[in-house]
Amino acid sequence: MNCVFLDCASIEIGDHVLLGPGVHLYRATHPLDSAERRKGLELAKPIVIGNDAWLGGGAIVLPGVTIGARAVVGAGSVVTRAVPAGEKVAGNPARPIDR
């Protein structure tokens, strides 16, 4: 419910993945340089989510991120980089947790 999958690039979601309400998957991005942005350039990077991963409600996944199989992303987290298989992450930016 209320999930956003921003298009422009591919997204792969594995088997038995759980997505909480309000999860956002952002694949579109723009150049960091303002002069380049003024040219209207838009870029896109794919997102991959492995089998049996779980993304808690309100999690945001940024362009180009891969979330490994069995990984858990805490509710409200902002995932800015790859999450290895079996890792549990939470926060902004998402970091490994021991829970």
Summary, kept brief:
The protein is built from one helix and 14 strands. The protein has 99 residues and is mainly beta.
Describe what you observe in this structure.
The protein has one helix spanning 34-38, and strands spanning 4-6, 11-13, 18-19, 24-26, 28-29, 43-44, 47-49, 54-55, 60-61, 66-67, 72-73, 78-79, 88-90, 95-96. By secondary structure, the chain is mostly beta strands. The chain has a five-stranded mixed β-sheet with strand order 3-8-11-13-14, with no helix packed on it. It has a four-stranded parallel β-sheet with strand order 1-4-9-12, with no helix packed on it. The model has no long low-confidence stretch (mean pLDDT 94).
- Looking at the structure, what is the overall shape? globular
Distance between the termini: 26 Å
Oligomeric form: single chain
DSSP strand (E) fraction?
25-35%
Put simply, the count of helices is: 1
Q: Low-confidence segments, ≥5 residues, pLDDT <50? A: none
Q: What is the spatial order of strands in the main beta sheet?
A: 3-8-11-13-14
Strand-pairing-aware structural class: mainly beta
Query: Would you list the SSEs in sequence order as H and E?
Result: EEEEEHEEEEEEEEE
The overall pLDDT, averaged over residues, is 94
Our Rg estimate from Cα atoms comes to 14 Å
Number of strands: 14
Proportion of residues in helical segments = under 10%
Major sheet details: 5 strands, mixed
